Amino acid sequence: MLSERGNQTAARGQVRPVCYRLCYQTRPPGRLVRVPPYGRSATIGRMPHPWPLFDLRIRTPRLELRAPTDDDLVALLDVARTGVHDPELMPFAFAWTDLRAPEFELSFLRFFWGTRASWAPAAWRLPLAVVHAGQPIGIQEVWATNFTTLRVVETGSWLGLRQQRQGLGTEMRAGVLHLAFEGLGATAALSGTLDGNEASRRVSEKLGYEPNGEDMVAPRGSPLINHRYLLRRENWQRGLYPVSLEHLDACLSMFGLPELRP
Ligand SMILES: CC(C)(COP(=O)(O)OP(=O)(O)OC[C@H]1O[C@@H](n2cnc3c(N)ncnc32)[C@H](O)[C@@H]1OP(=O)(O)O)[C@@H](O)C(=O)NCCC(=O)NCCS
């Protein structure tokens, strides 16, 4: 696997990670030419990815959260196509699940590519693929504007219908809150729940959020109340799930934060 770390193999007197072997083509015969797999693999052995967010990992007992590669996005499109919510209800402020092919697929991909292209320390949006038993099953997003000053993040998420009601929505939110509070030093996290979205409301309540007012949205043209929730750092339940962060140091500058010194 390209993500395997630490394995070494010897060829032509060289010692290099196994995954490097997978990234090389022989051209002409006998001469190794490196073929970057960027965009295809999340990690390149021990060599950091030039887009460091591709190396970032959040691990919870059952889940891995990672910046989605293009292959992950195609897998997530399949998940989204099979259904994310009851069609009678719209849980999103932008009704992206109402779109029809091919606009559904094009808009889905454009959104994720857009978050990469528009990334700036002053305004960033990090959608993370939620991976369970090796398969992408949904998205856990976190975003912020002027984070280095405000220290406030906001989150949003979805899971395929088949993966819902197994506690995974709560676990993935706990994972991204660990990134925000422990990894990035956030002081508060915001979330919104459209009227009638019991699952989203319960996830926020279970993790210690408190009601924080409401505003209105109209994803399908009729007004809907968006219940706002706020989790203050002091109410964050740090140990509720064991969470580990990997390769965050190399990403800190992308969030406008100083890199940690050993
Ligand atoms: C919101 C979402 C990510 C939650 O994920 P999940 O894995 O189903 O949630 P969990 O299994 O962790 O359940 C959390 C709580 O919600 C409750 N719940 C889950 N689905 C529910 C439903 N359809 N109706 C009522 N309660 C529900 C669970 O019972 C649990 O509460 P409890 O511990 O008091 O029993 C998922 O439901 C989803 O993707 N929904 C569609 C998209 C969406 O609404 N996104 C949020 C808005 S951006």
Written description of the protein model:
It is a single chain. The protein is of the alpha+beta class and 262 residues long. The protein folds into two domains: 1-47, no CATH class; 55-255, Aminopeptidase, CATH 3.40.630.30. It contains six helices and 13 strands. The chain has helices spanning 18-22, 70-82, 103-117, 147-150, 168-183, 198-206; strands at residues 8-11, 14-17, 24-26, 32-34, 57-59, 63-66, 123-132, 135-145, 152-159, 188-194, 210-217, 224-232, 244-246. Strands 11-12-10-9-8-7-6-5-13 form a nine-stranded mixed sheet, sandwiched between helices. The longest helix has 16 residues, at 168-183. The relative contact order is 0.14. Residues 1-42 have low confidence and may be disordered. Coenzyme A is lined by residues 84-85, 91-92, 156-159, 164-170, 197-200, 202-203, 206. Residues 84-85, 91-92, 156-159, 164-170, 197-200, 202-203, 206 line the site of coenzyme A.
